[in-house]
Amino acid sequence: MAGNTFGSLFRITTFGESHGSAVGVIIDGVRPNMKISASDIQAELDRRRPGQSRLTSPRREADRVEILSGIFKGRTLGTPICLLVRNTDQKPSAYRALRNLFRPGHAGYTYLARYGIHDYRGGGRSSGRETAGRVGAGAIAKKLIGKRGIVVRAYTLEAAGVRARKIRPASVERNPMRCPDPEAARLMEKRIETLRRKGDSAGGIVEVVISGCPAGLGDPVFDKLEAELSRALMSIPAVKGVEIGSGFAAARMKGSEHNDEFMISRTSKKIRTRTNHSGGVLGGISNGEEIVMRVAVKPPSSIRIRQRTVDTHGRGVGISVGGRHDPCICPRVVPVVESMAAVVIADHLLRFSLTRGVAGLKGIRDQIDLLDDDLIRLLDQRQSLVSQLGRMKKRTGSAITDPRREKKILRGRLSLLPETVLDEKLVRTLYGEIFRHSREIQKR
After folding, report:
1. pTM of the predicted protein model
2. Alpha helix (H) ranges present in 124-218?
3. Helix/strand/coil (H, E, C) string of 363-428?
4. pLDDT digits (tens, 9 = 90+) for 397-417
5. Which domains does the chain have, with CATH numbers?
6. Spatial contact of 134 and 343, defined as CB atoms under 8 Å apart
């Protein structure tokens, strides 16, 4: 089965089934020496897990993350990171009576048509349970892009026909709907609870805002930033539509209304736009404004109301789906939306650092900042190795100072200069300081 891997340089592969032993993710492309702890990842998983309120599935999963590889003593190693979340409250027996029935709105029929087999236990790979791995990867992606001052936040904009009128980010985590409008949140809860008692469910809209994103992320034509963000968001179970900026409202606007006029900011002196109908992306490349997108989330398909379907033998039957299901997925989709958006931005940040082709003062400074980040990480790695070397020398009684070794290192570096535009004096001065510092570390 293909389709389990996403990303180019920052790459994730999720694994596991809803009622199997575990779900998880493998993350590749994370630089070494980035600080990340289990608690950082757990905080995000706690936002996604079931059983948070009466508006979510009552399935009781702690969703405790296990770091199997790639992180040591709170720092990334640069090797693939594997995160595991065990399924401790799975109940595959609850689906035994439905194993030969195609549940309306579920992927059982299409999986069978594609692969000749399907996991009827809660949908297997097509279940929202798969997104636990995405959120784990998103926690790491958020850390990576956070170093560049980029923040991703999402919230329930609309649910059960109720739309938020006020956007107060501080209110999002203070109500079970994760809605930025407390008054709208209360009405959403009331309507969804009514539907839940009737055995029905509700859909909604989740909005995501990416702030602090520099101009220049993304590529033209097929690798447009909004195209890859859309693909990421559309891959989330239950998402049936995506729009950016003014979205479908643009179809009812005139060019004079929709165009975002450019200006020079009085405070930052940077190029800005007066409006943001484009949603922060022009020609597939970020323009430095907030990236604003919305996803349409369908109502959960597992409902108690009796519906018609067919079984695997083609016979028509009635079906009512009981069990533990969300009456509205929006609150738990919020952290998944944030995670997938963060994964895309992290991937494009890494691509941006490789191309080094952004013109202008800000673009050049951004590239220098990325290189300086790399220099600090490399110097940190070198210092760690020098410390190990010093301990080994003490144990073996070897001399701390090794002038011949220092000269050999310097000759090797100077031999590379003809391939560069570097000044010999700069390199000699730099390594003189590195050697002096290394000797001090080893003496300690």
Report:
1. 0.79
2. 131-146, 182-197
3. HHHHHHHHHHHHHHHHHHHHHHHHHHHHHHHHHHCCCCCCHHHHHHHHHHHHCCHHHCCCCHHHHH
4. 888 888 898 999 999 889 888
5. 5-245+280-355 (3.60.150.10), 361-443 (1.20.59.10)
6. yes
